[in-house]
Write a structure and sequence with these properties.
The chain is of the alpha/beta class. The chain contains 17 helices and 14 strands. It has two domains: 4-54 and 301-402, Aspartate Aminotransferase, domain 1; 61-299, Type I PLP-dependent aspartate aminotransferase-like (Major domain) (Aspartate Aminotransferase, domain 2), CATH 3.40.640. Strand 5 (131-135), helix 8 (140-148) and strand 6 (152-156) form a beta-alpha-beta unit. It is globular, with a radius of gyration of 22 Å.
Length: 415
């Protein structure tokens, strides 16, 4: 019989196996100073493309004032207890009402966190007789929610409607046997590729199949659609999304999340969603701060306009320079290159130390072996000069990568 602690040594995974050589630089880096396009990393100012601060609200003066005044008035403990027991407030309910009005759903439930919110919502919505059908490139929170499901689940090829229809046929036959129902799960914006989920096409399938649609729109809320109400608005199919989820961690630059649906579904979740029933309510400063953030999203369209000015400049510039940025139609901007994990570290080190560019480097198992992804997150507070500087740096490191200058067996060392 083995010991659990002994077993974990052989289960560190493709990233964890490099932990001793990467921690603090390639993984778990520390960015310091005011949040913005330029931050300090290991004592030097770098041009930063790694923050999900799409609309620049993280340190917007009005947001910081609202956060500070709420903290001064209430502290971080208020309200005490779970909302069902003693942690509810007028502010929590106001935020829910404001969100429901903005996204055009009858009701909303406020959540403490995005990851646990998606996972727990899936767990609550389905029972062992039901069938889940989900996109193959779904976020980890969806995958973990699906893993909790004690019934059947079928996965369809990413954004492939023929594959989805095949799985819906299988799910329909099975549901007729079990007496269960079908829940289809996808994303509004896929956070690595930047592709949009084919929401309108999925909604249209309701004419032929009986299912409900759950959409995780973490990267779409605030960035997509005429008003920023999300990818459902962008594709003119919000009414067909039965359960709409988003987090505050992206465009809202905060903590928390929400689900919008019918009053019946929201009431069900309030009384059956374990991650909310058994957790302390979201602290008042975070709630009041989110009310202010949502107000700015609603009333300051120039924030989204500025974001898309940078998105268009960055993505068009990268394409014109010959870079492969995949199929993105959203602010998420992946730059796809070929190379190994050690090559990725040498390239990253060069990019940060010699070009002062900080962006997320994504390698296997998040992307296939042999692929290096540089993922950039444009924001409303970047400038066109930032874009030009970045494209110039990327041209230089791509040339070195193609010439084999980063080809090493060991990870690049840092001090």
């Amino acid at each position: 019989m083995k010991d659990i602690f002994e077993k974990i040594e052989s289960r560190m995974g493709p990233l964890g196996m490099y932990a001793d050589d990467s921690h603090g630089y390639y993984t778990f880096p520390k960015l310091e100073g005011p949040i913005g396009p330029r931050m300090v990393f290991r004592g030097k100012t770098r041009l930063n493309w790694s923050l999900n601060n799409y609309l620049g609200l993280a340190n917007h003066p009005e947001v910081m004032q609202a956060d500070a005044e709420a903290a001064q008035q209430f502290g971080m403990a208020y309200p005490m207890g779970a909302r069902m027991m003693s942690g509810n407030s007028n502010y929590h309910e106001q935020l829910e009402q404001d969100l429901a009005s903005f996204i055009g759903k009858p009701d909303v439930i406020l959540l403490n966190y995005g990851y646990q919110g998606v996972l727990s919502a899936i767990d609550a919505l389905v029972d062992r007789h039901d069938i889940i059908v989900y996109d193959a490139e779904s976020h980890a929170c969806i995958i973990d929610g699906v893993r909790l499901h004690m019934g059947k689940r079928f996965v369809y090829t990413h954004n492939n409607m023929e594959s989805l229809e095949q799985q819906l046929k299988r799910a329909t036959r099975l549901a007729e046997q079990t007496g269960g129902a079908i829940l289809v799960i996808t994303e509004g914006v896929f956070g690595m590729s930047g592709s949009q989920g084919k929401l309108a096409e999925i909604v249209a399938m309701k004419e032929r199949y009986n299912f409900r649609l759950f959409v995780d729109d973490a990267h779409g809320f605030g960035t997509m659609g005429k008003t920023g109400a999300g990818t459902g608005e962008e594709q003119n199919c919000m009414d067909g999304i039965d359960v709409y989820f988003s987090t505050f961690a992206k465009s809202m630059a905060g903590i928390g999340a929400f689900i919008g649906s019918t009053p019946q579904v929201i009431k069900f979740l309030r009384y059956n969603m374990r991650s909310q029933i058994y957790a302390k309510a979201l602290p008042m400063p975070l709630v009041i701060g989110s009310i202010k953030r949502l107000e700015l999203i609603r009333t300051r369209p120039e924030l989204k306009d500025n974001l898309w000015k940078i998105v268009d400049a960055l993505q068009n510039g990268l394409r014109e320079a010959g870079f492969n940025i995949g199929v993105t139609t959203t602010p998420v901007t992946p730059v796809l290159l070929n190379g190994t994990i050690p090559e990725a570290t040498h390239m990253t080190h060069d990019l940060r130390e010699n070009y002062n560019i900080f962006c997320s480097i994504v390698v296997y198992p998040v992307v296939p072996k042999g692929v290096i992804m540089l993922r950039l997150i444009p924001t409303a507070v970047h400038s066109l000069d930032d874009v030009a500087e970045t494209i110039s740096a990327f041209k230089a490191i791509k040339g070195k990568l193609d010439n084999g200058e980063y080809r090493q067996e060991k990870l690049a060392q840092f001090q």
